[in-house]
Specification:
mainly alpha, 4 helices
Length: 105
């Protein structure tokens, strides 16, 4: 196999991006029915927030209070980002990423 043919084969195997640059994968946008459902659901936002607040304040079960509180906080501040602490085996130095160019020692 020559270098030219292997390059051509790699170019054919496009995964996840079957559309040309600048071309939409959904040119028609959201279906009209879905837009109507979203609009209807958004019209009940204040009612839903008030219900969540009532459950968070005086819910009958601890699980309901926690779920309502989390839902309110996520809507107000966004979901918290996941963080990961990385340390070396001894645990006394921060994790380091070393990038070396091939052929370097």
């Amino acid at each position: 196999m020559t270098a030219d043919s292997s390059t051509a084969e790699r170019k054919k195997k496009v995964v996840g991006r079957p559309f040309k640059k600048g071309q939409s994968g959904n040119p028609g946008g959201l279906p009209k029915d879905l837009k109507e459902v979203i609009t209807l659901a958004r019209s009940h936002t204040v009612t839903a927030i008030n219900a969540l607040a009532a459950i968070a304040q005086s819910g009958e079960s601890e699980a309901a209070v926690i779920a309502a509180s989390e839902a309110l906080l996520n809507r107000a501040w966004g979901k918290p980002k996941d963080t990961v602490a990385l340390e070396n085996a001894e645990g006394n130095q921060p994790f380091q990423i070393v990038i070396r160019k091939l052929g370097d020692s």
